[in-house]
Design a protein that fits this description.
By secondary structure, the protein is of the alpha+beta class. The chain is 25% helix and 32% strand.
Length: 577
C-alpha cells in the first residue's frame, strides 16, 4: 500500500487531510481506516493517480478526511492487514483551503458538506487570534455592509452577536459563524431581525433602509465555546471570506443589554416569536443568570426586638422608591396585631442603602414597630428579592407584599390568615386591592388572549375600576390566579415549588407562574372579599426609565409564561384545571 497526502489544513481541534492511496487489490475489499478519531471520510476517484502509478481505478482512491487535531505528529492508516504511517512533519500544511482541482465535480457537494459539518469551508484561511483581536468589526462588499457591534460570551456555552446587515442589492448569500470548528446556522436566515433606524440616520440614508437590518444571533453549544470566532460571509453561496472576531465575557449592566436587545422589538408580531425566544429572550435570561446565581453577600439589620414566634411574616421588597416604608409603618403602628407579625424588608437596590437605612432608623424611632431589613449586595430583581426575603422569614405563614400596598383598616393581615387556615385546600390567598377612590384594582386575575398581543395569555383583572360599593360582596372565592402584590401562603409551600421563577426578568408574570406551580400541587388559588387594602399600582416599581423597552420586556415575560404554561392555562380557562 502506498499513501500520499496532498495537503493538510488545521484549525482548532480539527485536522483536514487530502490525499490518495494505492493498494495491490480491489480497494473496496477493505475499509481505509485512520487510527485517530474522525468525523467524516470521503472517497473519490483519482484518474490522475492511476495514470502516474499505472494502476486500475479499482486499486486506488482519493480521500478527504476530517480528524481530531490531537497534536500527535503520526497517523496510522490501515487497509486490511496492511498498515502505513504518515508523519505530519513531512506534510505540507496549507494556509488557505482552496478548491481541490483533483476533486471530480460529482463529489463537490459531498466534499462541501463534509467541510461544513466539521467547521471548514472553501476559501478558509488559517486565522491568527490574539488579545488584540476585536470584539466588533465592519466588513463590506461593494455597497453592502456587515457590522458587528458586540460579541459576548454569556456563559461557558453561549455566544451572543449583535449587529446589522445593510444589503439592499442582496449580495450576501450566506453569513455564518465558525465556533469550535462548528459552522453555525446562517445569520441571514436564522437570526432575529429588527429595525435599526439609527443606522439609516447615521449613514444619511432613507429611513426605510433601516427596516429589519439589525439582528441578534445567539449560539449555544453543549461543550464550552472558545471566544475565538470566525465571521464568514459568501457572495456566491459556496466560497467564504473569513474574519477573526473575539467574543468578550459579558460584564456590563444587565439592564443595558436588555434595552439594547428590546429597544426596537415589535412584540405584537407572533410570526417572530420563535426567533425572538431563541436569540433574544434566551440571551436576556442568560445575562441575568450570572448575576442572580452568583454568590451574594447579605447583611441583616434588626430594628427593635424580634417578634417571638410570629403568626405571620410580611416580605416586602424595596427598589428605587423607599418612602412607602414610612406610609406602611404609619398604618402598621395603628394595628395591635403587629405584636405578632414579623416585617421583613428586602433592599434590592444597593445604590440607596445609606438613604434607606437613615429612613429606617427614623421610621422605627417614630412608630416603634419592630422590623427586619435584609440588605442584598446587588439587585436581584423582583423574584429574586422575594426569594431572598422568604429565606429570612421566621413564621410558618408568609405574605408577599408590595411596598405600595397599605391596609385600609387594622386587623386585615390576621383576618386573611384566619381565612386561609379555614379554607379547604387553598394554596395561595390574596385580598381585595383598591385604588384610593375605593374602586377595584384586584379581586383575582383571569387568563385572557389579548388581541393586541395575539398568541399570548395575559393576566386580566375583572371588574378593575368598578366601585367596590357596586359589586357583589363575598367572603372568599376561587380565582384563576392572584397578584404578587399580596399573596398569603405557607413558607414550606413557597419553598417546595421553588418560589418565584427568577427567569421573569425585573418583574411581571412571576405571580401567575407561582399560582400555576401551586395549582399543580393540587391546591386552589383564592381571593378574599373581606380583606381590603389600597394599592398604589406600580408606583413602587421605579426600576428603569419609562422607555418602550420596559413594556416590551413585560410582554417578553408574558411570552415566556405562555410558552411554559400554555396547556395548563387552557385547562384552567376551560374549567379542567
Amino acid at each position: 500500500m502506498e499513501i500520499q497526502t496532498d495537503f493538510a489544513f488545521a484549525v482548532g481541534n480539527k485536522l483536514l487531510l487530502g490525499g490518495w492511496a494505492v493498494v495491490g487489490d480491489d480497494i473496496s475489499k477493505h475499509q481505509l481506516q485512520f487510527a485517530r478519531e474522525f468525523s467524516d471520510l470521503l472517497l473519490f476517484k483519482r484518474p490522475d493517480v492511476c495514470a502516474v502509478m499505472q494502476c486500475s481505478e479499482e486499486h486506488s482512491t482519493g480521500f478527504l478526511i476530517a480528524l481530531a487535531n490531537t497534536g500527535d505528529n503520526e497517523i496510522e492508516i490501515t487497509w486490511g492487514e496492511v498498515t502505513q504511517r504518515i508523519n505530519l512533519d513531512d506534510v505540507s500544511f496549507t494556509q488557505q483551503l482552496a478548491e481541490l482541482e483533483v476533486l471530480p465535480l460529482a463529489y463537490f457537494n459531498d466534499a462541501t458538506a463534509l467541510l461544513e459539518r466539521n467547521g471548514f469551508y472553501w476559501g478558509q484561511k488559517s486565522l491568527a487570534f490574539s488579545e488584540s483581536t476585536p470584539s466588533s468589526l465592519s466588513l463590506s462588499h461593494k455597497d453592502s455592509r456587515i457590522q458587528i457591534d458586540y460579541a459576548f460570551t454569556l456563559d461557558a456555552h453561549t455566544v451572543l452577536i449583535v449587529g446589522w446587515v445593510l444589503d439592499e442589492a442582496r449580495l450576501f448569500k450566506r453569513i455564518n459563524l465558525r465556533l469550535n470548528n462548528i459552522i453555525s446556522d446562517c445569520i441571514l436566515q436564522d437570526a432575529f431581525f429588527h429595525p435599526r433606524y439609527d443606522v439609516a440616520e447615521t449613514l444619511e440614508l432613507p429611513v426605510h433602509y433601516g427596516e429589519k437590518i439589525g439582528f441578534a444571533f445567539t449560539v449555544s453549544l453543549p461543550e464550552p465555546i472558545s471566544p475565538n470566532i470566525e465571521l464568514m460571509y459568501s457572495v456566491d453561496g459556496t466560497f467564504f471570506t473569513g474574519t477573526a472576531l473575539k467574543a468578550e465575557a459579558f460584564r456590563r449592566e444587565e439592564t443595558w443589554l436588555t434595552e439594547i436587545l428590546l429597544a426596537n422589538v415589535d412584540i405584537t408580531n407572533t410570526a417572530t416569536f420563535p426567533k425572538l425566544t431563541k436569540h433574544v429572550t434566551s440571551a436576556i435570561e442568560k445575562s441575568w443568570q450570572g448575576r442572580l446565581q452568583a454568590p451574594n453577600a447579605v447583611d441583616v439589620k434588626q430594628f427593635g426586638n424580634e417578634v417571638a414566634d410570629p403568626l405571620l411574616s410580611l416580605v416586602i421588597p424595596i427598589y428605587g422608591r423607599y418612602d412607602f416604608v414610612q406610609i406602611q409603618m404609619s398604618q402598621f403602628s395603628l394595628d395591635s396585631d403587629f405584636d405578632n407579625i414579623e416585617i421583613v424588608y428586602v433592599l434590592d437596590d444597593p445604590r440607596i442603602k445609606h438613604a434607606f437605612m437613615v429612613t429606617c432608623k427614623g421610621v422605627f424611632e417614630t412608630f416603634g414597630v419592630p422590623f427586619k431589613v435584609v440588605l442584598s449586595e446587588r439587585n436581584l430583581g423582583y423574584a429574586g428579592a422575594n426569594n431572598l426575603g422568604v429565606s429570612y422569614a421566621s413564621s410558618e405563614h408568609i405574605v408577599l407584599l408590595n411596598s405600595d400596598v397599605i391596609p385600609k383598616k387594622p386587623h386585615q393581615f390576621l383576618t386573611l390568615l384566619q381565612q386561609f387556615k379555614n379554607a379547604e385546600s387553598v394554596g395561595i390567598l390574596s385580598g381585595t386591592l383598591l385604588y384610593e377612590d375605593d374602586t377595584i384594582q384586584h379581586q383575582g386575575m383571569e387568563y385572557m388572549q389579548d388581541p393586541s398581543h395575539p398568541g399570548m395569555w395575559m393576566n386580566y383583572h375583572p371588574q378593575k375600576g368598578f366601585p367596590l360599593s357596586l359589586t357583589e360582596s363575598f367572603d372568599i372565592k376561587e380565582a384563576q390566579a392572584v397578584t404578587g402584590a399580596l399573596m398569603l401562603m405557607t413558607k414550606q409551600q413557597y419553598l417546595d415549588v421553588g418560589g418565584f421563577d427568577i427567569g421573569y426578568i425585573l418583574g411581571d408574570f412571576e405571580d401567575s407562574d407561582l399560582c400555576m406551580k401551586v395549582r399543580n400541587t393540587g391546591k386552589r388559588i383564592a381571593v378574599s372579599g373581606l380583606v381590603h387594602m389600597y394599592h398604589l399600582e406600580r408606583l413602587s416599581q421605579s426600576l428603569v426609565s419609562g422607555n418602550t423597552w420596559k413594556h416590551t420586556l413585560s410582554m417578553v415575560n408574558g411570552l415566556r409564561h405562555t410558552n411554559k404554561w400554555n396547556n395548563d392555562v387552557e385547562n384552567v380557562v376551560t374549567g379542567n384545571g
